[in-house]
Structures are given as structure tokens and as C-alpha cells.
Design a protein that fits this description.
Chain lengths: 116, 306
């Protein structure tokens, strides 16, 4: 069971918001995109969003798809208002210096390793 | 707006209060046991009648026809001038301001607002005197109906959480390029549906549709509005904007097609998935567009068990 907490550790993330399920709820699916409409297509539960888009719309999109958390890549820091909204909607918000490609590869192998 | 003594305004006063004052007729609240005098009675006799009954004014009546009103003030003037043996007819105020029994109570409230009188005679359709109305009558009536009404509302509020969603309507204005506020309608409706234990998948569908509609107006229109109507069995979303319209609707409905600029893409939109997403999640999808604006109507059904 990979939790947001584990991903935070593996990718040396900065934590901007720890949600209630940070250490408990497993991440089962990932949507990675900088275009929010592509994320909205996701129908899975226990979703994590990986993106370089650091606007409030990232949080709103994550909220709509009931995502557990958002991983910001390329060392993006959240825009003002993002953290407040993440707290309001109880969504984890973490950021890594790694690129989108590196981040996706790492999370993918964590989730796959679990399945093996 | 002119500031009134009694703060009742058609467009601002709560519906319940408006109903209280417009839904009741004067005939329901006036006093029917009217003490009246005939015009040939002397002022001295009137003084005794008022003193005995503890009243400060009486209608002067001949065969149910209202001739005037005699008040304590008229009595004092007659006393001062030594005219107590005159008939009432000589001292009464003629052409009094009257109310009709079929008028709503709101009329009476306006009258007390506009005139300094403490009482108004009430006439029926045949112009006969049938009652008197004082501000006391209004206060007593209002307290009585307020008791009933507020009791009813308290009861409703207690069970409010479990009642059906009914007909909730929310209206949101959307401003061109306002990415900051886009998504608020979606969040609010999502929260509303969550309160009513609607199935997660359906909430997600409704939230997605509303969100994409908001974003579409922010990105592509000159501004517009989103109206969400939640009834017992479905959510209806009507998105209307002020133009410039969609040139080719079929193309706009195909996945990946977008007219968005790089700037919009940098904001996270313009994937060409907006309209296809809306269509995908809705049970009914209608779109019409011209240069003067685009109108999209979406229905998402709420299953009975949710």
C-alpha cells in the first residue's frame, strides 16, 4: 500500500498540506497532465494527480475527481490561495524538484512494485 | 429606495413576512364589535360613552352609513369652546380615510405608515361600516400568525437535513478570463449534493460538467452565467454566455479540438476536452450557438436510491 506519505519520502517532497488520509489511504491510480480537462476524464478512486500546473484550478480539478493529493513537479511552489484551498478541500499538496518524467517513472515503479 | 417607517419592501422582505401581510385580509383582523354613535347625539353624551368604554374615538353612523369620526381631540375642542350640547355631526371629522374589508393587511400597514390616525373605519362592498382597525389589532394578529409560522419554520429547520432536495436554484455569474473564480459553482453544487448523500459518481459527473462549463465561459466567452437547478430526480445546468459563439459545433465536440491560445494552455486548459467531457458525463446534452452567444443545457439524473 503506497501512501502519499511514502511518495513524499521517495521524491524528497516539500509538504504544503497534509490531508487527513496522508498516512493511511493508499494511492491506487495516477493522472499526470498539465491540462485539467484530461484529468477530469479520470473515473478511478484513490487517485493522485501529478502536474506542473500550480494554480488554484489544479486544486479544484483534484477536488472534482476526489483525488487524495497533488504532486507538483519541476520544483513548482504553490501559488497563493492554492494551499488554503487544499486545506479547505482536504487534499494533500506536495512538491518535488524532480521532473514530470522522473516523478511519473518513480511513482509508477512504486505502484508496480506493489503489484509484483 | 425611500426609507419607510415600517421596513417592508416587496423585493427585500422575507417571503414568509410578505405572505403574512399580503395573505391575510383586513376582515380577518379588524374588530367587529364597533361602538358607534348617531349624528344627532350630543357631545356631552359622547364624552360619557368614551369615558365609560375607555375609547378615544368612534365612528358616526346613520343606517350603517359612515358619516365621520369623532375623537377625543374633537371632544376637547368642544369642551374648551363650551359647545358640549352641540350634536356630534357639527364636530366630527368628515370624509375619514377608510379601509375596505377585502384589502390585504399590507394596505393597512401602509395606511398607518402614511397617516397619523390611530384607527381606520372598515367598510364592506356595499359601503357599510363593518368594523374598525387599530394598530393594536395588527400587532395582535401579527403575533398570532408569527407564532404559527415560526413554529412551522423551526420544525422544518429541525428536519431540514433529511427533507428532499426539492427545488434548489443557484445562479453564478462568470467573467471572461477570470480563472481565479472559475470552479466556485462546481464546488458549491458538489458540497450541496454531498449533504444530500448523492452517489459519489453522480456528484463527480455533475461537478465535472459544471466545472467545464465555467471554464468554457472563462476561456472562450465574453462572460455569462451558469444556472443550476436541483430537483428531486435530476440536476439541470444551464450555461448561457454573451458570445462570440462557436463557429463549428461538430468540430468543438470532437476530442482534442481546441481554439485555445498558448496562454490559456499555460493556465491548464485548452486540451480540447471540455465539451466532450461535458457530453460524456451528462444524461442529456443540448447546445445551440450563434454570434450573440452559446447556450448549453445539461441534465444529470439523480437515481432514486441516492
Amino acid at each position: 500500500m503506497i501512501k502519499i506519505e511514502d511518495i513524499t519520502g521517495a521524491l524528497s517532497c516539500t509538504e504544503y498540506n497534509k490531508n487527513t488520509n496522508f498516512c493511511t489511504e493508499p494511492v491506487k491510480h495516477v493522472a499526470a497532465s498539465d491540462l485539467m480537462s484530461e484529468v477530469l476524464v479520470a473515473e478511478e478512486e484513490n487517485l493522485m494527480l501529478i502536474t506542473a500546473l500550480n494554480t488554484e484550478q489544479t486544486i479544484r480539478t483534484a477536488h472534482i475527481v476526489d483525488a487524495l493529493g497533488i504532486l507538483l513537479v519541476n520544483g513548482k511552489t504553490p501559488q497563493p490561495g492554492m494551499v488554503r484551498l487544499a486545506e479547505e478541500f482536504d487534499i494533500a499538496l506536495i512538491s518535488t524538484k524532480k521532473s514530470m518524467f522522473e516523478s511519473c517513472a518513480a511513482v509508477h515503479s512504486m505502484l508496480n512494485g506493489e503489484n509484483d | 429606495m425611500i426609507k419607510k417607517l415600517i421596513p417592508v419592501y416587496e423585493n427585500q422582505t422575507p417571503l414568509v413576512v410578505l405572505e403574512l401581510i399580503q395573505g391575510h385580509k383586513i376582515s380577518e383582523i379588524m374588530s367587529r364589535n364597533v361602538v358607534s354613535v348617531k349624528p344627532d347625539v350630543t357631545m356631552r353624551e359622547v364624552k360619557l360613552m368614551m369615558k365609560d368604554r375607555g375609547i378615544s374615538g368612534m365612528p358616526v353612523v346613520r343606517q350603517k352609513r359612515l358619516l365621520g369620526i369623532i375623537s377625543v381631540e374633537d371632544l376637547l375642542n368642544a369642551l374648551e369652546d363650551g359647545l358640549m350640547d352641540d350634536s356630534v355631526e357639527k364636530h366630527m371629522s368628515r370624509n375619514p380615510v377608510i379601509l375596505e374589508e377585502q384589502m390585504p393587511v399590507s394596505f393597512a400597514i401602509d395606511y398607518f405608515e402614511n397617516y397619523s390616525f390611530n384607527r381606520f373605519p372598515v367598510l364592506n362592498e356595499s359601503k357599510e361600516l363593518v368594523g374598525m382597525l387599530t394598530d393594536r389589532d395588527i400587532i395582535m394578529h401579527m403575533i398570532k400568525v408569527m407564532n404559527g409560522e415560526i413554529g412551522r419554520l423551526e420544525e422544518l429547520a429541525k428536519h431540514g437535513h433529511h427533507t428532499e432536495i426539492g427545488n434548489v436554484i443557484r445562479r453564478y455569474a462568470v467573467v471572461q478570463n477570470d480563472f481565479k473564480n472559475a470552479g466556485k459553482a462546481s464546488s458549491e453544487i458538489k458540497a450541496l449534493l454531498q449533504e444530500h448523500d448523492v452517489d459519489r459518481k453522480i456528484i463527480r459527473a455533475a461537478a465535472t460538467a459544471i466545472y467545464e462549463l465555467e471554464i468554457n465561459q472563462v476561456v472562450h466567452s465574453l462572460g455569462g452565467e451558469i444556472v443550476c437547478r436541483i430537483s428531486d430526480d435530476h440536476v439541470e445546468v444551464l450555461a448561457r454566455d454573451r458570445g462570440p459563439g462557436i463557429k463549428n459545433i461538430d468540430l468543438a465536440l470532437s476530442e482534442g479540438f481546441s481554439t485555445a491560445t498558448d496562454w490559456i494552455r499555460s493556465m491548464g486548459f485548452g486540451a480540447g476536452m471540455g465539451l466532450p467531457n461535458i457530453k460524456r458525463v451528462s444524461d442529456d446534452f443540448r447546445i445551440k450557438s450563434s454570434e450573440s452567444g452559446t447556450e448549453i443545457k445539461v441534465i444529470i439524473n439523480l437515481p432514486e436510491d441516492s
